[in-house]
Amino acid sequence: MNISQNWRLNNQRYRLAGEECPHCGVKIFPPRDACPECTKPARELFTFSGKGEVYSYTLVLDPPEGFEDQKPYAVALVKLDEGPMVTAQLTDIVGEPEIGQRVEMVTRKLRTDGDQGIIVYGYKFRPLLASEA
Ligand SMILES: [Zn+2]
User: Fold this and answer.
1) Which residues line ion ligand 1, judged by CB < 5 Å?
2) What is the pLDDT of residue 121?
C-alpha cells in the first residue's frame, strides 16, 4: 500500500467513521455508500463511539509477514454498540479475551512496512475499564 492510499484511509482508520442510512437509520461500517439493509444510497457520515464488545476471536500464532514481533495476538470480531461488526486486533490485553468483554478502539502501530521502515498505523481494540463500560 502506498502513502496516498494510506492517507485516503485515514478517516476510516483513526476515527472509525462510517455512514448512517438516511432511509432506515442503519449504521454502516466500513463505509460503502449503499445501505446493506435497504440498498438505498447512504453517504451521510457517522462517527462511531468506538466502543463495543468481543463477539468472537481467534488467537494468531503464525502471523503474516510484518506482524511476527507481535505474536501471539488476538484478532476479534467486535460488535460495535451501534450495531456493525468490525474485525480488528486486540491490544493491551492480558491472557485471552472473553466473549462479551467490553472494548474500545485505540490507534496503534499496526506494522512496519518493508525495508524503508514505513510504520502503518490503524485501529485496534483494548479492554474498557469497568468504570467506562
Ligand atoms: Zn437503509
Assistant:
1) 21, 23-24, 26, 35, 37-38
2) 75
With a cut of 50, which residues of the chain have pLDDT below it?
A: none
For residue 72, the SS3 value is: coil
Q: How far is the CA of 90 from the centre of ligand 1 (A)?
A: 30
Rounded CA separation 39/68 (Å): 40
Three-state SS at 14: helix
> 88 CA distance to ligand 1 centroid (A)?
25
pLDDT of residue 55: 98
- Backbone dihedral angles phi then psi of residue 54, each to the nearest 5 degrees: -70, 120
pLDDT tens digits along 13-31: 567 889 999 999 999 998 8
CA of 102 to the centre of ligand 1 (A): 27
The DSSP call for residue 4 is H
What pLDDT, on a 0 to 100 scale, did the predictor assign at position 88?
A: 92
How many angstroms is it from 85 CA to the middle of ligand 1?
Answer: 16
